[in-house]
Every structure is written in structure tokens, then in C-alpha cells.
Amino acid sequence: MKEIFQSIFPNVCKYWNMFIDSLTATEQMFLIAGLLTFFIGGIFGIILIITKPDGIKPNRVIHAVFEIITNVFRSIPFIILLIFLIPLTRFITGTAIGVSGAIVPLVFGAVPFFTRQIENALSDVDPGKIEAARAMGSSTVGIIFRVYLSEALPDIIRATTITAISMIGLTTSAGAVGAGGIGSFAINQGQNMHYQDVVNLCVILLLIVVALIQSIGSALARATVNRKLFSR
Amino acid sequence: MIEIKNLEKTYDINNHSVHAVNDVSITINDGDIYGVIGYSGAGKSTLVRCINFLERPEAGTINISGFGKVIANAGRLYLERDGKPRPLLDKDLRTLRKSIGMIFQHFNLLDRSTVFDNIAYPLKYRNYTKNEIRNRVNELLKLVDLEDKRDVYPSQLSGGQKQRVAIARALADSPKVLLCDEATSALDPDATESILRLLKELNQKLGLTIVLITHEMAVIKEIANHVAVMENGRVVEDGEVYDIFASPERSITKRFVGTSNGLGKISKLIDDKAVDAVPTDRKKLIKLTFIRSSVNDALISRVSRKFDVDLSIVLANVDLVEDTPLGNIIVELSGEAERVEAALKYIEECGVRIEGVKR
């Protein structure tokens, strides 16, 4: 087994430790930035939904502010955003390179995308259900958790899946400007040194990870349509 | 008792305002089944949503016994208890809404919750123990006859069953009032009948006050005891259901009554020249309304014999309204002019209302 791997990917084995390090870096970027995006984007999406003119807590000013933030960062290409945010990144994390340097631009890049996805998912919740909850005397927080988030769960899972996959793409782009990870490994060891096998392995690996995330996400989304996740 | 006075609500749609509720005053007594009927856009939904303040009225007062008097002034709401008005808080609204149940045309159940959890929704996150909630839900399931559907999801239920779940959910917190927004409009005739029967049963068993919006006079006839007819945001006619059915005054009310007893078809028959409906001295097309005692009278044959006139029945219908029979006959009355006059006079003396049928 080991011999076969060595014969197909000789240069990966040569840089094995570097390869493992880059995997760890990508994993860290993905998990930390992903979690932050999930919560920040989720909260932004909820704020956009409840403050819209016919929402449960209409507020024109707050709605407009979050609309603008989302739209502005949504329209900047990620590579440009990376460079643009370097001063802010330095201010927050003390460095603009490595994993910690990548978290800030990753979050800025993914939050607007996820916000829109969550907003879409929540706006698909039947307004009648919201009205029924209001008629039963539910509070705003109650409606958010017990109606919006609960009813939109399958769509939220789908949104999370899509965002997770695009987050992997973003980490590799961040790799191109010094964040490390699988992206920079593929560029430095693969492209620059003309080791095609390195690039090949990276592609295979990414395909597997993306397929895995997609199938877990789809299965969970399907399992939660019109029912609870864990039920008899 | 719910006493609504001079209620106003205007919407702004694309910069032109729609007067959805226009100076409406109605009184809903405890134990009433109060029907509000009107075509879509008449403002009936808005009116009923003002009762639990899902819509904020702009002016007028709503006095709800056991809660207080809510005064709307320039879009702001004040709550008056013991003569002292103060701004109405969100907290007050939530308290009020817990004491008023509501059901909807499209049921609005939570699709990702079981029947049990849907019914338990208003009880959770309050000061009830798990046990109390379970007992109450089981009680409600029994009340709406759905004990075997406890752990099923709404997507597996029929429309009528979904509405039963919605009713159980609305009643979970033992409200005194139930608002029904077109609750049977999305149901087939069988389910409609069973839901109406359930509502009537709840009204009698629990003393539940029911406010019911509909565009079908048949629903009103089936269960309501009081009805208000709405048109363009105004209540144009209201009263006891039997009286409205026996003697509708406004043309819109007549139209609604006509759709429910089938006599509305007469104008179509006349237009299609299916009956020889040109009135002359010798021939009249009239509508007779028999109320209460006069229903069982053999009036037609007696008149025919006594005055030597011919009465040919074009359309006839007997309804039970509030368990009291109400008969309507459209007859073609022909004979010599003075005999026809005398016959008409006699019929009127017998307590039967006569209306000429016009095209």
C-alpha cells in the first residue's frame, strides 16, 4: 500500500511533513472561520429577516445598515478583499499571514454570502406560521427559535453545506497570499516546482472532502424535512 | 364580552390608502358564535385581527372583559383599567393573546413538530411541568378526537385533521374566545361540516365565545347565532342570524342569503327566460318568506281554493336556521286582478312576508 502511494505521489512523500502541516492549517482555517461565519452570518440573517418592514420587529435603520454591510462585502472579490483587509487583520490578530492572518478575511468573505443564504432560508418560512405564533403570544425570541430556525432547519442545513464548500475554496485562495494550508502547498510545491503529483493529490483530496460535506449536508437536510432530526 | 366601538384601520398600499375597517362598532357577547361575513377585501380579516391586535387599529376602542379597554388614538394603543389609561405594552399584548385562541384558513401548524408538540407549543416555556403539559395535550387530543395521531407529523394529516390540531393548539391555554379566520374555506364539504360541528360542540361544552370570519353564508347558517355583514370596511347590517335570513335588508345581505338557500338562482332563471316572468295585472312573480310558526301552514292550497287564483311554485326551499325552520317560496301568482290583490293581502295577514321578484 505504502509502496503504491509512494510510486504515484513520490514528491508528496518527499514533503510529507509539510503536507500534513498544510492539511492541519486548512482544517484550522476552515473550522475557526467556519464557526465564526456560522454564528455571525446566522445572526445577521436573523436581524435582516426580523427588521424588514413586514418582519416581527420592523426597524428601517438597522435593516438598512445590515443590508449595506452585506451588499458591500458581497460585491468585493475575495482576492481583493484579502489585500484590502490586511491593515485590519494586523490590528485584530497582530499578523496578516498564517492561519490567524487568514481568519479575518475568510470571515469577511463568507459572512455576507452565508447571511444571504440564511435570509433566504428564513424568508421561505410561511408567514402564516409566524402569525400563528404571534397570535399565541410568543415573544420575538420565541418566534426566532421555535418557528423561524426550527421550521427552516432543512434550508439552513443546505445553506451551511453550500457555505462550507465555498469556505474550502476561500481557504485555498487565502493560501495564495500567505495563509498556508493546502492551497499554498499546491502552489508552492506543486505548481512552482512542477511536481504534478502534488497538485493531483490536492485535487483528489479536495474532491473527496467536498463530496463528503455535500452528501452529509444533503442527507441531513432530507432527514429534517417535515420532521424532527431524531424521532421515532 | 368584546365591545368594539368606532374602530378604524387604514392601510397604505402603493401610496394610496385603503380603508380596511371604517367606523365599525359591534358587540360580541360571551357564549356567542359571532359570524362576520363579506367578500374578500371587505375588511373582515382585518377587523378580527384587531381583536388580538395582530393588526393595530388607528382609532376606536375595544373593551375586552377580563382584560381591559384598549383605546387606539392616532395609531397608539392605550390600556385602560379602572379608569386609568396607560400605554399598552408588549407584555400586555402577549397576556391578551394567550387568552384569545385563533385558527386560520391554512392551519399554520409547524411542519417539523409532531401533533403533540404543535398542541404543546403555547404551553412550553411557561410555568408548566412536563407532566402537566402531557396531561393537558392528551385531554385536548381527546376533545378534538385525534388521540391516535399524537406522534404523527402534520404532513401526514388531512385538512380536517390539521384544523382539529389547530383548534386543540388554540385551546391549549383555555382561552375564553376563539377567532376563526376562514377556518373552513380550505376544507372539503365533509371536513367543513365536522369542523363546524366541533366548533358548535366546544361553544356549548366550554362556553367558548367564537368569532368566525367567512364568505360562505352556509357556514353562518350552520352555527352562528349572530352575524355582521361587511362591505368596504363597514358593517352594513348585523343582527340575529334568523332575522337576517328572514328579512335581509341590504342588497349584499340579500345576495349572501340568496347563495345559501338557492333562491338566488331566480334572477338567472329570469334572465334566461326560463320562467314567464313578465309581470302583468293577472300574473305576478313573488317571493314568500315563511318564518317560525307559518312554516307548517298549508297556505298555498288554501289561498288557491279561497280566492280562485293559480299559484305555481317556481323555486322553494326550507332551511333550519338556529334550529328554527325558515321557508322561502317563489311562486307565480295568476288570476283576475282584484282576486290577486285580495290573495296577496290575505297571505300578508297570515304573517308571511311578500316581496316582488325583480329581474
Estimate nothing, just give the exact number of structural domains of chain B: 3
In the CATH hierarchy, the architecture of the largest domain in chain B is: 3-Layer(aba) Sandwich
Given helix and strand content, the structural type of chain B is: alpha+beta
Q: Quick one: CATH class of chain A?
A: Mainly Alpha
Helix content of chain B: 25-40%
Helix count of chain B equals 12
Percentage of helical residues of chain A?
Answer: over 70%
Q: Give the spatial strand order of the biggest sheet of chain B.
A: 2-1-4-5-6-7
Oligomeric state of shown chains: heterodimer
Gap from first CA to last CA of chain A: 43 Å
Q: How many distinct helices of chain A?
A: 12
Major sheet details of chain A: none
CATH fold-level topology of the largest domain in chain B = Rossmann fold
Low-confidence stretches of chain A: none
Structural class of chain A: mainly alpha
Distance between the termini of chain B: 43 Å
Q: What is the secondary structure topology, with strand pairs?
A:
The complex is a heterodimer of chains A (232) and B (359).
Chain A: H1 2-8, H2 10-14, H3 16-51, H4 60-75, H5 78-84, H6 86-93, H7 98-123, H8 127-135, H9 140-151, H10 153-179, H11 181-191, H12 196-223
Chain B: E1 2-13, E2 16-28, E3 33-37, H1 44-51, E4 59-64, E5 68-73, E6 76-81, E7 84-87, H2 90-98, E8 100-103, H3 115-120, H4 130-143, H5 159-171, E9 177-181, H6 189-206, E10 209-214, H7 217-223, E11 226-231, E12 234-240, H8 241-246, H9 251-261, H10 265-271, E13 283-291, H11 299-307, E14 310-321, E15 324-334, H12 337-349, E16 352-356
Parallel strand pairs in B: 3-10, 3-11, 8-9, 9-10
Antiparallel strand pairs in B: 1-2, 1-4, 4-5, 5-6, 6-7, 11-12, 13-15, 13-16, 14-15
Helix pairs in contact in B: 4-5, 5-6, 11-12
